[in-house]
Amino acid sequence: MDFSLNNPWLFVIVAVIVLAVLGQSVFFLVRALKRAKELGIANSTIKKTVSSSAIFTIAPAIAIVVGVIVLAPKLGVALPWLRLSVIGSLSYETIAAENTLEALGGISQVTNATEYVTIAWVMTLGILIGLILVPILAKPIQKGMVSIGKKDKRWSEIFSDAMFMGMISAFVGYVFCDVTHLFMSEEAFGKVAAKFAEKNGGAILTRTASLIPVCVMAVSAVIMAIIGLLSKKTKARWLADYALPISLIIGMASAIPFTIWLG
Amino acid sequence: MTNENKTFEMKELKPTSTYMDNVHKWGRIWGVIMLVLILAYPILSCLIFGVLPDWNALLKGLLATLPMYWAVGLIEIFTYVPMLGVGGSYLSFVTGNISNLKLPCALDAMERAGYKASSEEGEVISTISIAVSSIVTTAIILIGVILLIPFREELPKILNNEIIAPAFDQILPALFGALGVVFISKAPKLAIVPVSLMLILFIAIPALNQSTVGIMVPVGVVVSILTAFIMYKKKWIK
């Protein structure tokens, strides 16, 4: 068959895989809902979990659509659609695609079937590890967690709080990763800016751009705190239920003026 | 322990183990199905176009990609499975986008419902939240792809223009600012060491950035658990 990045059969295959993903999610959802009832979790709690998880997901999911759009000119729509619906994340998939484009002789976009299937193989094999190992490792890991809980219930609660804190601390650190740009010598910053321009098609990097994520984080943190206090004062529970999506969206929106101002 | 307590506990334990065993069983079955389906894409693309990959480029591409991905992937399993819970893990490791979507979603759901990740209620809430999030994500991507066909020119202009793009670039700071407030204010003592350490590391080491933050998550987790353990043993936290 003649090569086309948007061959209809490619879409058919992806549609089948995406349906299977939906099937798996629905399957686990139904079972968990049933179990939640057996455990006596209040109906209102379950409903709120469903609705606020759905609303929270919208903005990050649109960001994933943007990822598909970014990759589409190079790889067509089908492959990025698959890779970002199943396991992938934009940063991983971009790196895997670029590594292979590089290995194919530094081409900038896929032009024939051989190049296409080569990239599809690298992107697929690159992300398989979780799919192979989670079914093998999840049970022993869970058993380990249970045995910690049996020995000392309080410690197991602190243990999970500490895990979350560890993850959050890494991302808080990441938000500040470029603030050193503010204090670099002209020469050192020039090098960083040149590298940035090379990677981003000649875009200009300013020193203050490093403060954009910091400001966005501050805005979303403040909004979250305000909503927390408000919902306590006014006893408006619904406000607390949507605190995360509200803070997320206001934080993201604040990136627009901050980028105009600092970028 | 009184007799009454004993019977209560036995009642609790039995269904717990069956539910969990079932989750493992079905998680594994679905895992195998998804593995086959995902491998089917490159295999079928080869058949559709009647070509084989460029072996040389394939090898080079894999060598540049696999070692890092597989190492990070392995660490991610040990880091994220205990946080996501079992059902949540089987789903998240298929649908991806864990740190920027599934885990924050599950964390927020458990926090609001008032259940600990270590309890079965926490496990169930986490699974519900991740399943809903996966369904919504898949649906939104599907809508995006369908819109992309007639609006190939327009959609990129709307979602990926110079003005709006920064909002999508800043999802992680916006997400972790909000989550950070909740978790740090809840357990400020647990936060001091890992947050300070990560700030110092990320500011001092230029190689640490968005593409390497995934490697620093397990480092943060280990440091955080160790300091929590010391504080717990010294009775600084109760």
Task: Please tell me about this protein's structure.
The complex is a heterodimer of chains A (263) and B (238). Chain A is mainly alpha-helical and 263 residues long. Chain A has two domains: 8-144, no CATH class; 168-262, no CATH class. Chain A has helices at residues 8-38, 43-75, 78-85, 90-103, 113-126, 128-151, 153-175, 186-199, 212-234, 237-241, 243-262. In chain A, 46% of the residues are buried. With 238 residues, chain B is mainly alpha-helical. Chain B has two domains: 3-166, no CATH class; 187-238, no CATH class. In chain B, helix 3 runs antiparallel to helix 4 (98-113) and helix 3 (86-95) packs parallel to helix 5. The model of chain B is unreliable at 1-14 (pLDDT under 50). Chains A and B meet through helix 1, helix 2, helix 3, helix 4 and helix 5 of A and helix 1, helix 2, helix 3, helix 4 and helix 5 of B.
Top keywords for this entry?
heterodimer, A: 263 residues, mainly alpha, 2 domains, 11 helices, B: 238 residues, 83% helix, 0% strand, disordered N terminus
Short description:
Chain A has helices spanning 8-38, 43-75, 78-85, 90-103, 113-126, 128-151, 153-175, 186-199, 212-234, 237-241, 243-262.
| Sequence stretches where pLDDT stays below 50 over 5 or more residues of chain A | none
Can you count the beta strands of chain B?
Answer: 0
Helical content of chain B stands at over 70%
Cα shape of chain B: globular
Distance between the termini of chain B: 23 Å
Overall body shape of chain A:
globular
Q: How widely separated are the two ends of chain A?
A: 47 Å
The chain-level mean pLDDT of chain A equals 90
Classification by helices and strands of chain B: mainly alpha
Order of helices and strands of chain B: HHHHHHHHHH
| Category from helices, strands and their pairing of chain A | mainly alpha
Cα-atom radius of gyration of chain B: 22 Å
- According to DSSP, the number of beta strands of chain A is 0
* DSSP helical segment count of chain A: 11
Low-pLDDT residue spans of chain B:
1-14
Please state roughly what percent of the residues of chain B sit in beta strands, choosing from under 5%, 5-15%, 15-25%, 25-35%, 35-45% or over 45%. under 5%
